[in-house]
Amino acid sequence: MSDFSAYALRNSKERGARTSSGYGMLALAAVLLAGTIWIGFQIGTWPDWMAAVGIGIGSIAVLFVAAGFYLLQPNQAAAILLFGDYQGSDRNTGLRWAWPWLTKQKISVRIHNITSERLKVNDLRGNPIEIASNVVWRVADTAMALFDVDDYKEFVNIQIESAVRAIGSRYPYDEFEDDKITLRGNADIVSDEIKAELQDRVALAGVSIEECRLTHLAYASEIAQAMLRRQQAEAVVAARAKLVEGAVGMVEMALEQLSEKQVVELDDERRAAMVSNLMVVLCSERDTQPVVNSGSLYQ
User: Fold this and answer.
1) Which residue in 76, 128, 217, 290 has the fewest CB atoms around it within 10 Å?
2) pLDDT confidence of residue 223
């Protein structure tokens, strides 16, 4: 038998507990208390042994009923145990009652919100990055959360770190060579993958992951400056390419209009010189200073 199969045989599963509303038992306790007090007033008219027995039985009955009360707030559950054996979970709110020999172990099923610490992870290309995620989760199965893991909150915290590390190392931080998915460019996809990865990991604890979103993503400090210069260089190259593309179009348009309107006839050498001058003027980052030719075109 495999390890997983052996674990599956021990796996807990939430089921409803046999409990009742506490308000009816509260009325019964009030009646028993009133009867015990009434018996106390009969001392002197009843035989002493009979009054003592009545008071004793009434007191024990009141204490017995009172020992079974417990309260459940909204989004709170109680696991009912009989000498350590799981009997079921009660999710009904308000005043509840169960047999006094049953143990009631309360657990919150409210929404929990955790922001992981900033983890240093190597991305797909080996670059160290810092990544953190915010996770919204809740307990879906109280029996699994209480009895299948030692501390379900600590278990979730550890699995969040493991899932973030696993997904953070699966993709590159930024697009270098036509990467389809990157951590910076596809944050929603990465967050959904972290959620799916985390849900698989915490399913053993009966926990449901409601939402997962990246809260921090950056290069590690030791390479941040180098990567910033690389990004700046890429931006400069992209801007230059756009500028050259526009300048070539403008030069082409200028030569075509000069030729169509027969403003001036240029041979190949002067045409090349004019193209060079126009490209310098259009692509220069500084204002150009024109030189006026007072002689002929070929001087």
Assistant:
1) 290
2) 58
